[in-house]
Predict the 3D structure of the following.
Amino acid sequence: MDLNSKIYIAGRGMVGSALVRKLQDAGYRSIVAPTSKELDLRNQSEVMRFFRQEQPDYVFLTAAKVGSVQANIESPLDFLYDNAMIILNVMHAALTSAMHRLMLIASTAVYPRDAVQPVSEASLLTGAFEPSNEAYALAKTMGIKFCQYAAQQDPGRFVAVTPSNIYGPGDRYDEKTAHVVPAMVKRFHEAKLSGANAVTVWGSGKQVREFLYVDDVAEACLLLMGTHKGGGPVNIGPGTPTTIMQLADAIARVVGFAGNILYDVSKPEGAPSRTSDVSILNSYDWKPAVSLEEGLNLTYLDFLKRA
Ligand SMILES: NC(=O)c1ccc[n+]([C@@H]2O[C@H](COP(=O)([O-])OP(=O)(O)OC[C@H]3O[C@@H](n4cnc5c(N)ncnc54)[C@H](OP(=O)(O)O)[C@@H]3O)[C@@H](O)[C@H]2O)c1
């Protein structure tokens, strides 16, 4: 990419906004990033029209229907349909345009529930998905296969990346769709304000996860867009595991909640462990710049600004 390249950021949520910030800071002059109201990516003819009109050189496909474990369990059809349509419409329009390269932001949710941990890219489609997010994982896996098939016939134009849990400024805090970090930030903050003496967290707290600050994800995407030649997937993660209990303790510290943290084992908690093998990413000398504690502090400041 050079500073005059036309760059389309599809999806202007947490990751899309971080990419726009990074690109603007680096001096890129031609960035297009319509909102979902301006361009509904489920609409094929609108997407084709957009590509004909804008003719982007590079595309970061961050748009997706994302949500909590509960939201995924309640409406799998929406997660399958929206994500499949977004991926096929944007990637097919890109394929048939003069675009140089597209990066699909997929997710580590595509890997089998029982994959050996830390999960490597090679474990894709070697076992069943985690049932609670099967629909989302199916659509994202289809997108990854699109990148791989396209790489066979047209090398270098499509690449998929698979980030682990992302958090940071611009995250969603509504109960229906919030991921674990924003959901906990909000609940601990409200508990602090109301003087509650306990907060209950879903699951045992022993599940192992990874959390990467959104600016680090954006940096990794920009690096891989320029360096990684294959179709992917390439894992993006911090390389350090965190249990939900450790996360809850850290958020309580950052928010200043001094009460008890209880764990409700009757509630769903997803896969027991999800950590990623980041050897491919690390081979490009990449390391996260923001620690969990620092990232949570920045997230809480953003939450307070928007509350
Ligand atoms: N957040 C995570 O922990 C995580 C982890 C791994 C991978 N990922 C992946 O990373 C990507 C970015 O995630 P994020 O956290 O930035 O999500 P986000 O904040 O929810 O942003 C997603 C964006 O997609 C847009 N979108 C949804 N449906 C659309 C449609 N039909 N047409 C146009 N735009 C549409 C949303 O617009 P509206 O807000 O207007 O609906 C939103 O701007 C996603 O592909 C996700 O699967 C996320």
The chain has a mean pLDDT of 95. The CA atoms of residues 12 and 307 lie 20 Å apart. The domain at 6-167+211-237+276-289 is CATH 3.40.50.720 (Rossmann fold).
